[in-house]
Design goal:
The chain has six helices and two strands. By secondary structure, the protein is mostly helical. It has one domain. Strands 1-2 form a two-stranded antiparallel sheet.
Length: 119
């Protein structure tokens, strides 16, 4: 990390405490994004690419049936919704904290979050 990045990071601190203002967050948008991710994921892994995904992981019909029988739907789907909500909240914090309000800046954030990290 260069010295300029270290200064930028330290500017977020007030004494020993990192402050995070959640007041500019649009909570309705965060909820809508979480719900949209859940619905898109459901469509993606069932109607669109369910069978190819199962085949790619070498799951048999018996294995799928056993996994469905062992699954607690409330825990499984509830965990997914919570995960999508946290993801949407993190993106909202990044967007509002760094004032990334233009479509180009939004696309850059999406690309940065989607792309794999360099190793």
């Amino acid at each position: 990390m260069s010295a300029s990045h270290a200064i930028t990071v330290l500017q977020g601190f007030q004494g020993d405490v990192l402050s995070l203002d959640l007041s500019p967050i649009n909570w309705l948008a965060v909820g809508a994004a979480a719900l949209a991710a859940f619905v898109i994921g459901a469509i993606w892994y069932t109607a669109l690419f369910g069978k190819p995904w199962l085949a790619a992981h070498n799951y048999t019909d018996e294995q799928v049936a056993a996994m469905k029988a062992a699954m607690n739907p409330a825990k499984f789907f509830g965990g997914m919704i919570v995960s999508y909500f946290v993801l949407a909240l993190v993106v909202a914090v990044i967007v509002t904290r760094f004032e990334l309000y233009t479509p180009i800046k939004g696309a850059k954030v999406g690309l940065a979050l989607w792309s794999p990290s360099p190793r």
